[in-house]
Every structure is written in structure tokens, then in C-alpha cells.
Amino acid sequence: MKQEIIIAGFGGQGVLSMGKILAYSGLMEGKEVSWMPSYGPEQRGGTANVTVILSDERISSPVLNEYDIAIILNQPSMDKFESKVKPGGILIYDGYGIHTPAKRTDINIYRVDAMDAATEMKNEKAFNMLILGGLLKIAPMVQLENVMLGLKKSLPERHHHLLPMNEAAIKKGMEIIQRVDS
Amino acid sequence: MAEDIKLMKGNEAIAHAAIRYGVDGYFGYPITPQSEILETLMAEMPWEKTGMVVLQAESEVAAINMVYGGAGSGKKVMTSSSSPGVSLKQEGISYIAGAELPCLIVNVMRGGPGLGTIQPSQADYFQTVKGGGHGDYRLITLAPSSVQEMADFVGLGFDLAFKYNNPAIILADGIIGQMMEKVVLPPFHARRTEEEIIAQCPWAVQGRKGGRKSNIITSLELDPAKMEENNIRFQAKYRKIEENEVRHEEFQCEDADYLLIAFGSSARICQKVVEIARSEGIKLGLLRPITLWPFPTKVIAAYADKVKGMLSVELNAGQMVEDVRLAVNGKVRVEHFGRLGGIVFTPDEVLDALKEKLF
User: Fold this and answer.
1) pLDDT band for position A13 (cuts 50, 70, 90)
2) What was the pLDDT predicted at B131?
3) Can you give the pTM of this predicted structure?
4) Of B5, B181, B275, the CB nearest to A34
5) Which residues in chain B are contacts of A65 at CB distance < 8 A?
6) Strands B5-9 and B25-28
7) Which of A52, A98, A145, A167 sits most deeply, having the most CB atoms within 10 A of its CB?
8) CB-CB contact of B59 with B88 (8 Å)
9) Coil/strand/helix, residue B92
10) pLDDT tens sequence across B37-94
């Protein structure tokens, strides 16, 4: 079993850290993992993306042609990555800020209104965990308990009091994700 | 899951491996995409645990000269930088090679020339294996293609450097430096005691404490006859390294009709190219030089009679391809494919290039 995932959005949305949590979760399950960021100045305000691969076997290239799952958090990323989802693959996007939704009919498209939910929770920082929850509902590639372990591992100890909030956000994300018929 | 499997960036792995290997000193200056080496060392504060010195120098030039000084006293010392910073170090590297001192240099390459870009590149191949600084010297060059190898090659680099009294370099790039993978860090070694250093490095300058003749560390020799002798000694050492220290890895080469030759991150991408090509019925293999100098000339030459063509796949405009062509000496067609200036090729692009150039 291998999942090749791209997470793409604006810098500051928690794209890289969401990828990191996913990678740590995979590590907790004994999977092979790779986390390959687009690094550099684009992380501040510009677009940022990270490729995460979880696999039962040795991972060859961290750089990919196409993806099983694309998580799209802004319009430029939709424009860039919609075409790179494998046929039959999954595209998950946040409705906020997407003015031209995905059009492909050969992939499974889902929407998580994570920005709205984060605003409702009065916690913008829950945004990426809401998205992660949505992803895990559709593609349960790692157990929630391992995600929490991964989160614990990737967060500095001084932030460990935020773990329950993150867990709540993940569960909320699982509830609000919805399929979009294109 | 074993407790000692960690998830970290290649740059972080180098820093942790250096502490665990018992390195005496690191001297560096920040530059993307390798700044996590210095950052991690500073955060780990090894001076409190092992006594290892970690110093942010005032410049790359200062850092390499601190390495020169530390190496002259027999210490295990290292520096790291990225392409423009490594250019600044070239004078010092030539001096260290000329003084026959062991040390470890790390270059996490980015796109050039000039200040270029901060994205991954492999365009410092020529600089690293063909000279860089002045004079007839060679660097033992290790090209890691995984985070695990970033960790492992710190120890290997120092072992080879001390075996031959010659600088070694880890030639990585922004992909391997920045990506996170699983890694098992090497076990802890205590730093050598002063007595152990004196026993291992009788040439080191450590203070005579009465008794022995002065040790002099220099690359200067004004008598050309003696300087020629020095050079002949260097060359004999280089031939020995070429004889003994070539390392490479083969991936589905046995029955291959075509070979990709690639190092570092390009070799990782090329593994995927081999998988895709094989699924299309193309018998493709990958030969990965692990040491770029000494280059796996003999093993590549041996494949010249077996395959229909070779493609040297590099994140540059065609550098290692020259060594591949020298190795096969016209016996088989050798082409190059690369992307430039920080752009990374996808597996599909490489496969298309193979078909276009060699089929």
C-alpha cells in the first residue's frame, strides 16, 4: 500500500506542518515515509507545498509526476495540481478562496469548509487539523491514535496542552467533509 | 517501531551524526538550503555533552581556515555550506589538501552560477571532483541519496579522511538536505583524548612538550624539486584511493538494455524512472556512483559492452556525463539529461528524454 500525497496552499496555512504530522503518523505505524517541502521564500505569503509519501515498501523518488491525493488550499494550487491527480484519485479542497472549483470527472472530489469551521471554533490554528480530519475520513491511511502520537512527537512540549484542541479539530474535520459531484 | 528510528531532514541528520561520531569542532556560516546543520548543532549544544565546539564564523573563508587550524592539530573538524559559500572556501580547501590534512566538508548544493537560487542543483560536480581550488589535488567525494546516507557519510567521510590524510566532502543538494525520511542515527563515540590524537596523528601540532622534533603544517614549499616530490606523493595517494575506495550501487542493471547513471537526489528520481520503464517493458537499469571521486570508472566501462546506451541524469547542464564518456571511451552512446538553475525533473521527463535521445 502506498499513498502519494501533495498538500498545497499559501504559506502560513500550516501546509508543511500538516505534512509533517502525517509523516510522523506514518512513522508511528512503522511505514516508510518521505516529506519533501517546497522550501524557500515562497513560504512567506506565497504558495507552499509539500509531498508526503506513506508506503509499506521502500520509497524511491520523493519527487512525483502525479498524486493519489491532492489537498488544495488556494486557487493557484488548484490551477497547478488538479491535473496531476491520478485518475480515480482524490482531490480535497477548502471552499474558502477557491473561485474555480475542480472540474475533473475521473477523480473523487471532496470539500472541507475548514476556514469557516476554524473561525467558528475561534481558532485559526485549527485550520490544518480540520483538513487533516477530512483527509483521514476519506482515506483512513493512519489510525487517529497514531496521528495523536505523531502530533505529540512533532510538537514541542510547551505546546502539548493544545493536543486536545487538535484532536477535536481532526474529529470536526471528519464530520464536515462532503463529496462534491462534478 | 524501534525507538531509535527518527524522522528528520538530511541536514539535521548530518548535525546529529557529527555529535555522535565524536567530532571535535564544527565551523560554519548560514546559507540556504543547509542552515539546519548549524541550527541543529546550536540547538543540541554538544559543547555541554561531548565538548564539541560549534562556532558560527564571521564568514565562510574564516570557517574553512578554522577547519585548517583544527585539522592541523589532529582534531576531527568539519564545515558545511551551500554552493556560493563553498566557492568562498576553495582557497582553504586547496591549502588543506596541500598540507595533507583530514577534515570533512559538506556542500548542500543550490542552483548557480553566482548567488543563483536556493533551490536544489547538482551543478558543483566539476568544482568538487575536478579541482575547485588551485593545484593538482583531489577531494574524496561522497554523494548521499537518502537522509540515512547523510547520517552515515559523516562517519565514513571522517574515516576516509583520516585513513588518507586528505579532505573528504559530502556532496548533497537541496532535496536531500531539506527532505525528511526515517533515519537510524549512528551510535555514540566519545571524542578522542589528547593522547589518542597524538598516537593517531604523530604529524599533528599539539605543543612539543619537550622531546620530539617540531611538526610543521604547511602547503608552502619554495624548492620546486621538493614540491614536485610532494606532488608525486599526493598522486600516489590518489591512485591508492582510486584503487581502494570506489563505491557504487546498482539497481536492476543485470539484464538492462539501457542504463541511467545518476547520483544523489537524481538517483532517487531515477529509481522511479526504472520502475515506470520496466512496467512499460523497457529493460532499464540505474547505476549510482556513491563516490564521485574516485569515480566508478571500471564498473561503468564493464557495462559498455552490455548495454545499447547510457543516459547521465544530473541537475546540471552536463558535468558527470564527461566522466561517463571517459569511462566507456566511445564504446557505447552516452547522452545527458538535466534541468538547470534549481528546477528538478520529474520521473516522466527523464523517461521521455531517454526515449528521445537513445531510442
Assistant:
1) confident
2) 84
3) 0.95
4) B181
5) 346-348
6) unpaired
7) A52
8) yes
9) helix
10) 999 999 999 999 999 999 999 999 999 999 999 999 999 999 999 999 999 999 999 9
Mapped onto helix, strand or coil, the DSSP state of residue B216 is coil
Task: Flag if B119 and A30 touch (Cβ within 8 Å).
Answer: no
User: Could you report the per-residue pLDDT of B263-299, keeping only the tens digit for each?
Assistant: 999 999 999 999 999 999 999 999 999 999 999 999 9
Locus of grid cell 564527461: B322
Predicted complex: ipTM over 0.95: no
Identify the residue whose cell numbers are 489537498. Answer: A71
Q: How far is A178 from chain B (nearest CA, A)?
A: 31
Nine-digit cell at B349? Answer: 521527463
What residues contact residue B308 under an 8 Å CB cut-off, 6+ apart?
B257, B258, B332, B333, B358
Query: Is A149 touching B (CB cutoff 8 A)?
Result: no
CA atoms of A147 and A24, how far apart (whole Å): 8
Summarised one tens digit per residue, pLDDT across range B327-346 is 999 999 999 999 999 999 99
DSSP letter for each residue of B326-347: HHHTTSSEEEEEE--TT----H
How far is it, in rounded angstroms, from Cα B157 to Cα B169? 7
Q: Give the separation between CA B96 and CA B119, rounded to whole angstroms.
A: 29
The alpha carbon torsion through B232, B129, B157, B96 (nearest 10 deg) reads 50
Q: What angle do CA B338, B342, B344 make, to 5 degrees?
A: 50
Phi, psi (deg, nearest 5) at residue A41 = -65, -20
Q: Is the distance from CB of B148 to CB of B177 less than 8 angstroms?
A: no
